[in-house]
Amino acid sequence: MSYETELTRLSLTDPRVIVMTAENRAAIRSLPAVLGDRFVDVGICEQTMIGMAAGLALRGRRPVVHALAAFLTMRAYEFIRTDLGIPGLPVKLVGYVPGFLSEGNGPTHQALEDVAIMRGIPNLEVFCPADEDDLAAALPALLASDRPTYIRYTNRPAIVPHTVSDPHRAELVAEGRDVAIFTHGLLVAEALRARELLAAQGISARVVSVRSLKPLDEEAILTHGSATDLWVILEDHFKAGGLFTMVAELLVERGVRANVLPIALAERWFRPALLPDVLRTEGFTGEAIAARIVARLDRPHGNRVAHNARDPRIAASQSLWARSQDRGLIPAGTQTLAKGPGQYVDGIAPKYLARGRGARVWDVDGNEFLDMTMGVGPISLGYAYPAVDEAIRAQLDDGITFSLMHPLEVDVAELLRRTIPGAEAVRFSKTGCDVTTAAVRLARAFTGRERVVCCGYHGWHDWYISVTDRNRGIPRGTQELVSTIAYNDLASVLEAVDDETACVILEPMVFEEPRSGFLAELRRICSDRGALLVFDEMWTGFRLALGGAQARFGVVADLACFSKAMANGMPISALTGRADVMALLARDVFFFTTFGGEALSLAAARATIGELAARSVPEVLAARGRRLREGISALGFPFVSVPGMDARTMLAFDPTAGSPLEMKSYVQQELIRRGVLWTGFHNLSYSHTDSDLDYLLGCYAEILPSLAEKLTRGSVASALRGKPVEPVFRKTTQFHTKPRRAS
Ligand SMILES: Cc1ncc(COP(=O)(O)O)c(C=O)c1O
């Protein structure tokens, strides 16, 4: 749709509209005939026209004023500031030939308009459409606004279909993972051209048409920039005072660290010429933009999330590992078993990660990966997620750990009480194991019983780990008090829970759905037999639903334990539950620790839970996870299945088809070559985009047929390029079992 058509329509429907121009009629030729005396051409008196428009606006009219951009913003600046800006009059200024959008009018006419000046005007909105469709779609809202507006006119035909008509919102015009190009106006087209050229070099760029320079869509800028490695600010304006300055101010204000590349006009006047020449001589063609981005990224020779020709170089990882093993420096090498080398093909996979952003991580050798493990659960939103990192930085400015309690303890406890069913009372600690252990101690104190029945994994402390075969160092008495039940097996529950049982603690769901009535029946049995029911919600909490499994399945436990997803990577856990049980923590049951009220993690928890709620993250993860699951199933390979909750599925291998460890190792090594870090699980975060998951599906679509062929030939083991992975300690279906011995 053309600007002229839309302005005509709006003028005819709104008698307040007066169209004015200073001898600049190119885009409004038909309007004098349509509007009669509501059309005013003042000749060359731009300043006078602004003052006149202000007077008309004061009398209830809505003037739409056309003039050359440079004259509007510089020669009429004083009038705009005083007549329009200060009283906030709804005059709509349409600047022709904005930026260097010229077909060669001569130096004065082609002079740059000054966005820096315009954004300094109180109340003024600044709108910079990418093309005429964009402008026409925004026009109704721009005319309806009661504030003065500066519109950069463009008559360029549509370059992309537009989805956003709210002129205050930025528009993502193309997706990408590595680089975010923020631009507006005619340079959107050049950014798209640069994006194509970058893609040919394996660099994925997203393009954001910022559209509104004032007010700036800050959240969109932070979200898109933070999801990538490099923020490119591309503008047909000087660096000072334009979009680059605005983004820089935003980053400083929010305390966000970013790698920013400004591509703006050099601090000199450009030579008037036709537009293609100006673009070329000033370095604004897609080619020149792409070249500057490539130079800036200056990646080491690391692999990327792409079909790499070779396995990643992992020399730095291997050397760190050797240091960790030197004379037994770090026994086991890792502090978290699931991150240890046993879970990765030795010789192929990296061992140490240096940084992360969104759903991407970079190892110490500079290789980039799409991460499907996400810190083994905590990274629910994404690495370096701006809203959480800002909350942490803001708290860091005030302090970390204090000598008295901190108000966040109260704030976050109230937040959990509102969010989690049954959370009448709340206590914080640091690890998952802290709170499962506190729950068990509390249950023993409340019931006066000692036996514990569990199902799932609950951490490293004596009471739980005693049921596994890694139980050295645990007194026999402790071991004898704990037994296990089988998930979804009520017969095993009935056998295990008796009048000596203090509690049944279980993960309400891991990779198997609870059978109909299982959790409700378990609840009933516990109540009948006087045992407490404790949910270990490390994986289900904030993921299956914001209120966790209790909200999702409608069964409320006596106590529930949370940690992983609640603070996007900061160390914090929460024990929640019945007020009468939790009241014992006031004195008789001792559960205190130095860092329990540490404020950075509490600030992170508040910000994380806020984001999880505001963005309906559990629902988003479920939808993306379902698509992934369906995509894998549609590939039709009978030797794999995809069990689990939608937000966290796994690729399970059928043991009758071959060795699951060899199959998993093969898939892992092939994924690593394609830039995906994977241990069999799809631990989705809010930062995993549909295109990330499509990429993973595309990888599976290549790897699984080749695995099928190797299974047929019996050659999976010989196709491995490194040492296969070891079994997971924390099994995914049948947990460590230690049924109660008949006494
Ligand atoms: C279900 C469950 N419970 C408890 C824990 C122990 O948590 P942490 O390792 O933070 O002590 C974990 C850790 O993986 C877990 O998955």
Sequence-ordered SSE layout with sheet pairings:
Elements: H1 3-13, E1 17-21, H2 31-35, E2 39-41, H3 46-58, E3 62-68, H4 69-75, H5 77-85, E4 92-96, H6 107-110, H7 115-119, E5 125-127, H8 132-144, E6 149-152, E7 171-174, E8 179-183, H9 187-200, E9 205-209, E10 212-214, H10 218-226, E11 230-238, H11 243-254, E12 260-265, H12 275-281, H13 286-297, H14 315-325, E13 353-357, E14 360-363, E15 368-371, H15 386-398, H16 407-419, E16 425-429, H17 432-447, E17 451-455, H18 462-465, H19 476-480, E18 482-484, H20 490-496, E19 501-506, H21 518-529, E20 532-536, H22 548-553, E21 559-562, E22 573-577, H23 579-582, H24 599-614, H25 617-635, E23 640-641, E24 644-645, E25 648-650, E26 652-653, H26 660-673, E27 676-677, E28 681-683, H27 690-713
Parallel strand pairs: 1-2, 1-3, 3-4, 4-6, 5-6, 8-9, 8-11, 11-12, 15-27, 17-18, 17-19, 19-20, 20-21
Antiparallel strand pairs: 5-10, 7-9, 13-14, 14-15, 16-22, 21-22, 23-26, 24-25, 25-28
The protein binds pyridoxal-5'-phosphate.
Beta-strand percentage?
A: 15-25%
Main beta sheet: 7 strands, mixed
Give the strand order of the largest sheet, numbering strands 1, 2, ... along the chain: 2-1-3-4-6-5-10
Helix tally equals 27
Average pLDDT across residues?
93
**Head-to-tail CA distance between termini:** 84 Å
Q: Which regions are unreliable across 5 or more consecutive residues at pLDDT < 50? A: none
What does this structure look like?
The chain has 743 residues and is α/β, with parallel strands linked by helices. It is 38% helix and 16% strand. The chain is built from 27 helices and 28 strands. The strands form 6 sheets. Strands 2-1-3-4-6-5-10 form a 7-stranded mixed beta sheet, sandwiched between helices. Strands 16-22-21-20-19-17-18 form a 7-stranded mixed beta sheet, sandwiched between helices. Strands 7-9-8-11-12 form a 5-stranded mixed beta sheet, with helices on both faces. α3 (46-58) runs parallel beside α5, α9 (187-200) crosses α13 (286-297) and α26 (660-673) packs across α27. It is elongated. The protein starts with a helix and ends in a 30-residue tail after the last helix. The model has no long low-confidence stretch (mean pLDDT 93). The site of pyridoxal-5'-phosphate (PLP) has 13 residues, from α17.
